[in-house]
Amino acid sequence: MAFSHAIGAMKELYLENARDAFALCYLYAGPVRQALPLLRSALEDALYLDKRREKALSGQEGFLWAVQEACNEFYEKDPFGRKKYKKHKKDTGDSVTLPFFLTDSLRAVLKLHGVYRAPLYLVLAREYTPEEAARILDTSPRRVEALIQKALKKLKFSREKAAQALSVLRLEEEDAARIWQRVEEAAAQPDFEKKHRSRRIWRGLDQAVPYLALAIVVLGIAAYLGVGQGWFTGEAYTPTAPQEALESSSGPAATGDLTVYVPEEGGFAEYVVHDTPYRPEDVLRQMVYLGGAPAGVSLLSSSQESLSAVWELSEEASSLAGEEGERTLQAMAATIGGYYGDSLEELSLRCQGEELTVNGKTAQDFLGGQLTVTRTGETDYRE
């Protein structure tokens, strides 16, 4: 195997930098059931791919650069972390108990767009210089600092608070060693290179699908215009009789986990609703079922342009009033903000043609704010 000579040196680099390697994977993959497979995949890529192997063996910064490349590929494919795993998936040997808890501050960082997470961790929590972080992230020191400042503004955190939230990320030494043992066992298999090559091919196809879809759309538009304008026949097409427009039917929406916030005494309950269709009407339906929106309210219309979204709610939403109504509006803003993710900076909830206002506050006032989570729960989607 072309990489066999590098296994010893790669192991040494990994064990010296296992904490940072795991932290980067956790920041981009979230749950441990995704972070650990991502870490293994990053290490296997660093062994198998010539460019990454050469860069990784150059030292600490090169090794973490190779891990970050794998994290970027993972995030580009699944930026919302919606990949689903079977509940009773067979144990792969990667299961560990992490020596830290998912705090509210850490959860807030994980809700940021992926581009902000690594700079925050490397510079604030691990005290890399902007120049060192820039070499790991393959960018400029100025951009690293700009990303940190913008992230802190979004979080409304001080540098110290962000550093404290991220400094807990680590992996026990015995767990780190066990992950490497799994990598070595995989690399020793005769079909390792074949499997890895196949995985890279499928990954490339996944990345090419959006471009292929765009090409098909462009060809379809060109064909439509070509027939309509007579590009192919020299005569423009003219229908002989009016034709009724056919209603287009859309396929089933993509599904995944939705976080719904519900006001309760002392704070807010956080529910994860599994298998939720990613449509505004289904999101609002789950909010109403769980108590995170007024009873009986429905969605009349919704629109999203650039970084803003507007939801027109039925008249039941006008029942929100007082402190309880204000906290419900706060929960609604948090749930809808989480649904859209980092692609939302302006939120308008309207009722009867006017902005929904409770105690002088609107959904925009609560968007991006931090909630005190008093308990968590899980449930399945309900029609």
UniProtKB/TrEMBL annotation:
InterPro entries: RNA_pol_sigma_r3/r4-like (IPR013324), WH-like_DNA-bd_sf (IPR036388). This is Uncharacterized protein. Keywords: Membrane, Transmembrane, Transmembrane helix. The chain crosses the membrane at residues 208-232.
